[in-house]
Amino acid sequence: MKTKLNQQQSQTTNLYDQDFNLWLEKTANLLKNRQLEELDYDNLIEEIEAMGRSEKRAIESNLVVLLMHLLKYKYQPKKRTNSWRYTIREHRRRIILSLEDSPSLKRYLADVFNSCYIYARQEAVDETGLSLGVFPLESPFSVEQTLNFEFLPQ
Length: 154
Known about the structure:
Low-confidence stretches: none
Oligomer: single chain
Structural class: mainly alpha
Strand content: under 5%
Mean pLDDT: 92
Largest sheet: none
Number of strands: 0
Radius of gyration: 22 Å
């Protein structure tokens, strides 16, 4: 026979599958009220881990777009547009805001910088129609330059 506590936990787990937003609200309330025994721990752990992965993926995605636009800006000077400058500024802003919220992601950004450059290089080929050989094998931009609002390659 299930205890009342087990029934409450089961109801919370079922809620996760039926109405995610309501599950989030209930979980937040349980945490606020220190009703830890009623928490749906398995799904809560899964969601917290997913949030961390999501933050990392956002860094990677914004970094690839930023690097790709820096490459376009450097290697197609006659085609430079305000739109490219806007995209560079916008993706810098997104990355910097993420790093301000989660400073530990600075190390992660440094760790994935080179692999993001490889993707950005290929995307620059797709966007520009230039050959892969036009773009250096390693990033011509440092992490610091990439994130510097004043930096635009010449």
